[in-house]
Design goal:
The chain is α+β, with helices and mostly antiparallel strands and about 140 residues long. About 30% of the residues lie in helices and about 30% in strands. The chain has 4 helices and 9 strands; from the N terminus they run αββββαβββββαα. β7 and β8 form a beta hairpin. The longest helix has 18 residues. The chain is globular.
Length: about 140
């Protein structure tokens, strides 16, 4: 059986390498997902053309909703605010391509947040196009 921590590390490194190959500067949080800490650290921070993406990564085998702990979402949001960046949830379903969601797409459920449709997010090429275009705001791509 695969160790969940090693699977998470593998998936985080996979996205970090993909973004790096596409011209992003990428840093993986050294203690992302691990233990109690005084401050939140995202899974990845990716920067391209002065745009900062603060990314929490989730992977699943099916298209069921994804739940995120409230503290994790609030930490992601605060880190992005401090960095002047955009908080994103990156999702990859087994065998599928990466999809990116803003935290505005999450639905509060009380103690957590739900991402109802993990496959509905931006593809990586949409994310790149939004970052590279100077005349269109990144969030406008998410709204259609």
């Amino acid at each position: 059986m695969t160790n969940p921590k090693s699977k998470a590390t593998r998936v985080e490194n996979e996205l970090a390498n993909t973004l790096w190959e596409r011209g992003f500067a990428v840093v993986r949080g050294p203690s992302s997902g691990g233990g109690v800490r005084r401050r939140y650290q995202p899974d990845l921070v990716a920067i391209k053309g002065g745009k900062v993406l603060v990314i929490e990564i989730k992977s699943r085998s099916g298209n069921s909703p994804i739940y995120l702990d409230s503290e994790q979402v609030l930490g992601l949001s605060e880190f992005a605010r401090r960095a002047g960046g955009l908080a994103l949830i990156a999702v990859r379903l087994r065998g599928g391509e990466w999809r990116f969601h803003t935290i505005d797409e999450l639905e509060p459920t009380g103690a957590s947040f739900r991402l109802s449709e993990p496959l509905s997010g931006m593809r990586i090429r949409d994310l790149e196009e939004a970052i590279e275009r100077k005349d269109r705001d990144l969030l406008s791509y998410l709204k259609g």
